[in-house]
Write a structure and sequence with these properties.
Layout lengths: L1 H8 L3 H27 L1 H23 L7 H38 L2 H12 L6 H18 L6 H6 L2 H27 L4 H22 L12
Length: about 220
């Protein structure tokens, strides 16, 4: 009976995890949008990556999670971190500064569509008719909102071409990062927390030196003062 119950509930674990992620992501977007306007996108992105890396490493050590990865998995996850977090999230935080969280996250909703299209070409995954219709509907819905001429003047002036380009690049980076991470999972078992830690550390290895050399990052304490 226990096995039967597990078999029934487990197929919905991914869907529930995705919904929870979407809720948390939406909440964090509003916080990040406010923070980027105060201290800048580089400061916010690097500070949250440092904190996330510390939390994840502590969690992995305390829970003694299986951190064994092959060289190929480390490569894929590192590339995923670079594409999704270094490039994608940097553009996302720049979009927060330019056009705010609402429109930025709206444009980011096409990231799963980007991931699905990339997975079709890179991983050979199939796209069903319903999936294709879903992608078209999502892109159409985003286009309607972004191009809406009946919005309030204050909202229209917040829409800049630069901000929309940043948000679009963020969506592409997010989608590409997801596909690269999935390639690591195809190689074999990877603990989700370990995968996230590798992606974040790889992203920090690129972002932090650049930020320090260009004097665009000073201290994490600036985020809380």
């Amino acid at each position: 009976k226990h096995n039967e119950t597990t078999f029934i509930t487990m197929p919905f674990l991914g869907e529930l995890s995705a919904l929870l992620t979407a809720c948390l992501w939406s909440g964090s977007a509003m916080v990040f949008a406010s923070a980027t306007k105060l201290v800048g996108s580089f400061q916010v992105n690097i500070t949250r990556l440092i904190l996330a890396a510390v939390y994840l490493v502590l969690l992995i050590v305390v829970l003694q999670l299986d951190a064994r990865l092959s060289g190929t998995q480390i490569l894929y996850l590192s590339l995923s971190g670079f594409v999704g977090l270094t490039l994608g999230d940097t553009f996302l935080f720049k979009a927060f500064q330019e056009i705010g969280a609402r429109i930025s996250m709206l444009v980011m909703s096409v990231a799963p569509a980007v991931a699905a299209i990339l997975a079709y070409f890179v991983l050979g995954e199939t796209l069903s008719l319903i999936g294709i219709l879903g992608i078209i509907t999502t892109v159409f819905g985003v286009s309607v909102v972004v191009l809406d001429r009946g919005a309030a003047t204050s909202q229209r002036t917040a829409l800049t071409t630069t901000g929309l380009i940043f948000a679009g690049l963020a969506a592409v980076g997010q989608g590409g990062g997801l596909v690269l991470a999935k390639m690591a999972f195809h190689e074999g078992y990877v603990n989700g927390f370990v995968a996230s830690a590798v992606r974040i550390i790889a992203s920090l290895a690129v972002l932090l030196p650049i930020a320090l050399m260009t004097n665009r990052y000073s201290s994490p304490l600036r985020m809380f003062t």
